[in-house]
Amino acid sequence: MKRTIALALSLAMSILFVAGCGGASSSAAPASQAAPVSSEAAVSGAPAADAGKYADYPSKPVNYIITASAGGGLDICARMLAPYFQAELGKDAVVTVSNVTGGANWVGWGEMMNAAPDGYTISNIHTPQVYSYLNKSLKNQNTLESFNLLCNCVTDYCLIAVRADDERFADVNDLKSFAEYIKAHADQEFLVALTSKGGADELVMLDFNKTEGITNITGVNHSKGISEAKSAFLGGHVDIYSGKVGDTLAGYKDGTIKVLGVMSNERSKLMPDVPTAIEQGYDIVNGSSRGIVAQPGMDPELKEIIVSALRRAQENPEYLKAMEEAGYEVDYMEGQEYEDYMKAMEAVVIEYADELGYN
């Protein structure tokens, strides 16, 4: 089975989740303000709960917790999805998006976990940040089983790139020739721009280096995130960029960045002419995945109502078009497929636990 590896761990900020912990910074906005919904979208599906003991669900607003500040990728994706999810729940449904920050996501996740499993509180989950519970020094008692996985929404896949004007890599156009060049210059150290320690971009380079037996690529973490890492790369302060499709798209389109391979199972719709790592003989799939979770104690019948609405929302052509135009790739998964995916990503983090400082 192909290995799947996942997106940016905030190790330095991760803390132990304590039930009922305070310090959350929260704001809420009606989903109707997140993105316009056409009349067609509003009637695209029948209400999920049209029979049975949940025939009246939802009878009050559904709180969709985002464990990050407003305006970031997690928040934007949630606010784009919310109105379509709301429409699929039924004409009287209301979905609000709340930003609950702090504790490297665990304040928001704690609020979700402490809520009743009644379908009125859900939250985002994203990788590999969620796997911070594996860091033994944090003594976090949570596991993947602390979350009831509803579905995955988006995956921003990782990639390896060089600058198009870097003459050293003039004849390097794929991952194999890249590896050969690096190993042929073993007396030199090559720097790669990374975001935070333990992010998906670092996991990609660790996996690639291990596969090829490369020892002369060194990661340089940038505490201010993607913008700082990309600036260092484009400014020539580092040699290589291990980033993601979304943050590399503009440079790929204008020709300043040469993408050597994308770490996805299938070619990115946003970079269709770039072969995947798998196509090039590397069993590496890596990306920043963003999904939705609830409490483990939720009634399976209620869970199916919610998941069905989320599924239909993410099949809506209007939503898919909006996401593509915004540079986000919808990567819908649910059920066993999603559980297997999350466990596979966790296994990769465990594999590199020593390098990540988790043990």
Short description:
InterPro entries: BUG, Bug_dom1. By secondary structure, this protein is of the alpha/beta class. 32% of the residues lie in helices and 22% in strands.
Helices, strands, pairings?
Elements: E1 4-5, E2 25-30, H1 39-42, E3 62-66, H2 73-89, E4 95-101, H3 106-114, E5 121-126, E6 148-163, H4 175-184, E7 190-194, H5 200-212, E8 217-221, H6 226-234, E9 240-244, H7 245-254, E10 257-262, E11 285-294, H8 300-313, H9 317-325, E12 330-334, H10 335-351, H11 353-356
Parallel strand pairs: 1-11, 3-4, 3-5, 7-8, 7-9
Antiparallel strand pairs: 2-4, 5-11, 6-9, 6-10, 6-11, 6-12
Helix pairs in contact: 2-8
In words, what does this structure look like?
The protein is an alpha/beta fold and 359 residues long. 32% of the residues lie in helices and 22% in strands. It has 2 domains: 222 residues, Bordetella uptake gene, domain 1 (D-Maltodextrin-Binding Protein, domain 2); 129 residues, D-Maltodextrin-Binding Protein, domain 2, CATH 3.40.190. It has 11 helices and 12 strands. Strands 1, 2, 3, 4, 5, 6, 7, 8, 9, 10, 11 and 12 form a 12-stranded mixed beta sheet that branches. The protein starts with a strand and ends with a helix.
Features:
12 strands; alpha/beta; globular; 11 helices; D-Maltodextrin-Binding Protein, domain 2
Write the H/E string, N to C. Answer: EEHEHEHEEHEHEHEHEEHHEHH
**How big is the Rg?**
21 Å
Mean pLDDT comes to: 87
Find the CATH topology of the largest domain.
D-Maltodextrin-Binding Protein, domain 2
Percent strand: 15-25%
